[in-house]
User: Fold these one by one.
Assistant:
Number 1:
Amino acid sequence: MGPQAAPLIEIRDAALSYPNGTVALEGVNLSVGQHEFLSLVGPSGCGKSTLLRLIAGLMAPSAGSVATVSGSTGDVPEIGFVFQEPTLMPWARVFDNVHLPLRLKGLSPAEARPQVEQALEMVGLSDFRHAYPRELSGGMKMRVSIARALVTRPTLLLMDEPFAALDDMTRHRLNDDLLELWSGQHWTVVFVTHSIYEAVYLSNRVAVMAARPGRIVADLHVAPPCPRDREYRLSAAYSAHCRAVTDALARAGVPDA
Amino acid sequence: MHSHEPGYRMPETAATAGLRRRQTADRVMPVLVALLALCAWEGIVRWRGLPAYILPAPSLIARTLVTDWDTLWPAWLITLKITVLALLASVVGGVGLAFLFTLNRWIERSLFPFAIILQVTPIIAIAPLILIYAPNTLSALLLCAWIVAFFPVLSNTVTGLRSADRNLQDLFTLYGATRWQRLRLLLAPSALPYFLAGLRIAGGLSLIGAVIAEFTAGTAGQESGLAWRILEASFRLNVARMFAALALISVTGIAIFLALNILTRKLIGHWHESQLPERR
């Protein structure tokens, strides 16, 4: 399942510089295949979130190309995006928040109900469909945000440090839940994080980035067991992968990230 | 899921009971203070034997309210009419302009300075001019009150429409939202708390604008409001009636304030931070 098998994302020599002269990204080459789980790791300011926004099509590169093509149909793949903050509409109930992407595509609540209910079930929040975001804990809000990203049944899921603001216990649980969802579906995930441990635990491929200018300095394939369990976090293989990523970051001149 | 129970509503606890006690105290205390002040006022007037043309006692003002009701009631209706119409007009004008401004930066750049000029020029200085050029007194009064009241609605709504969460904006872009969907589902709800804050300011200002306009219009109107009744009573040294009319104006202001607070709670009470009970 390497990138050579029908890439979903193809980035060639992409660069992004701002009018004030800041170079956010330079010479980025990346190709992501179907059903890969790729993490982008790097220090803050290395442009990993920017790269994600380029992939999402929210920004255009100032040089080079960024293309996302769905292997089977050749169309632009359906994209789900999860931000660092839950980014929910505080005035809308959980159901309406998850319904939003379908509503924007013209589906009424009645038409969208089966899909919304399914997405809520996937993240275990069916009982909370009538709650307002402020009535939920941080982890639950993040689950709503994930349900909203999944409700359109995307082929490409982009996640921008989604669990960074959560406590370790919640984060580990959501990591496992995400892996379980991923293994049952045929999505590709691009996951931005500044945590080496999270990246190695989740991904089968880790791209290490460095700052000024933002660029990819290492592309490591890790082969985690499937399904992973608590033992994996303590295993020698896991430590070795973490070590490899840490070394790559160090070589790029990043002190312990 | 996990440790969270589906019953997310706050159960009745010692804390919520305490909160309820505080809320009751919030209502009772101001009433008590007002009653005490009125009693003191009444006492001083009686004890010093002050004549009514210097300081009428609250009891006399209350009696005047009843005896002069036939004069005060129609005047009150007129002031109320101007105030409410001006407030409605500032909602329509303020929100309408705000939407226009967000749709097009050029419109904003060309028109916003004029809105500011209208806002910073004292209405009392413009009012005589408006009285000359307006087709009739009522429309002149309305225009004055509107000029005073619409700016907070406009400026707050513009700020609100610009305050929508950036990530949500991106999400709307990602899912190909139309302009109309973005306005209705994201910008308008984000702006609502700001608009309501502006509306509460505009509520008080529209009453002030109506009263100032009436003062300036003076005898020009056959339909005279409470402000004119105050002027008229002062010419006749009928101080009790001045106070009675003033009391009605205050009641109007308080009623508008309370009505807008209730409206705010109805519209955003279930989600906006400003409407949540205090912690502690």
Number 2:
Amino acid sequence: MNPVDFFADHTYRMVFFGTSVIGLVAGALGVFAYLRKQSLISDVISHSALPGTLLAFLIAVVVLGVDGRNMLGLIIGAVVVGTVAALGANAIARSTKLRIDTAMAVMLSVCFGLGMLLMRVIANGVFPGKGGIQDYLFGNASVITIVDFVTSLAVGGAAIVVMIVCWKEFALRVFDPQHAIALGFSARLIDALMFSMIVVATVIGLKAVGLVLMVAFVVTPPAAARQWARTLPGMVVLSAVFGAIGSGAGAYLSVSLGSVPTGPLIVLTLFAIFLVSLLFSPRRSLITRSIGRIRARQRLRAQLLAASGGWA
Amino acid sequence: MTERPGVANETLACSAQHLSVAYREDAVLVNVDLDVPQGIVMGIVGPNGAGKSTLIKAMLGIEKPLTGSTRFFGRPLRQAKGRVGYMPQSTSVDWDFPTTVFDVVLMGTYGDLGWIRRPGRTERARAQQALEETGIAHLSRRQIGELSGGQRQRVFLARTLAQRPDLYFMDEPFQGVDAKSQQAIVAVLHGLRASGKTVVMVHHDLATVRDYCDQVTLLNRRVVASGPVDEVFTRHNVRIAYEAEGAGDPFLAFDAGVGAP
């Protein structure tokens, strides 16, 4: 499909710009998860966002008696439970002998279990507007409405603004957590802000991408950007660009190729960017590094042979 | 709990009172009392696991003490934060972090800025000066991952200098350092003392204690002895701190720097 036809179509436009925004925000904030060595935290968040979203839906429908599909309400539910789960995993790692990977796995699975339970409750009951709730599992980019798009733009934009305003504090805490405390900053406050922004970046993509694949949006762009960037601002900008371009390109391809789901194709596009970065980035390239190592070893061998008089 | 006399004394750079720290059920530090007068270099010396780093962290509130408290210039830490600097062990961070030497040193000025405010011309000038004082101005634009062990220590030292505190806590500043960096760090230490600043430094090399320190605290979970090097840094006290038994102990053959008896 040529670009003119593509952008003339409202649904395609929504898919393209909707996923690009998701990729941009997740790419930017994913850098902080990467640098805290908690890349998988986004998987905890996305899985715990399921019960959060469904709880928000139930509260809206049963308690408040309003439309349960309101995007902002669902995001708030996801953010609350997602933040609790992310900080909970960190609290377990801090206060027990369990390591963070175990703590994250426990948190992730228990939240997902709760979410599946709630999903069954909703499926079995009579709730207005419950259709489409299963999209949160695997995502469905073609159902992005203009309201969804504007909401994710506003919420994601707010997360980016918080990141820029608290840039100095975030940078300090990710580089040297204890130094931040010694300088008089509240570690708790910085962490709460940082993790809730990572949560926001994760949950705005749930409906379009699904909770299973969302982790790729948060993890892959920073991993690719690290290969090229020399500074923190450089890494965040590059990661955001990778996220946006990968998502846009993946969305375009998925439409062009016919009935191919968008989320999975974006994940593959992001992986392609990651692979190119691993192989060809100037200073950290796998190829030039291994060639350099082989040459250095050959030189060393030649020297040693010469020194030993050629007996080895 | 009664306060020791002089704990709130403003002429002391810092004073720890009955400080204890426990990791889970195990006491790492037991009832440490420590007075550091202003304008001196205080070495904290003791065997591995003696709680040297923990003592510094507990005084600075990074590690939560089980009992006790610390005052800085006669005040609680909250009221003296800007005057107290901390140089952690350089191995405490991941040096494969996307940032430059200059940006790390600039972080030393963040405490004075507080929340939200960004570093400006004044802060950059402070960072630049700290780079020059530690002799690494030429590395300013370098990626921190490309530095040697000694250069890393000097980056951390420069970051602490950029903060411009009156009291410096340094955790093993000479760890893994080449001769050139060692000289540069010693020069900074002497400069700080000459300008009336105070340094509390965890130090593991007994042979150089006399050269670098005015006072020394021998630590092994509790304070074995603390005071001027000439009075305190004796063979007897070192032996107690290191739990070395018997006169023929090979450990005691190495005590060139230790005073007799």
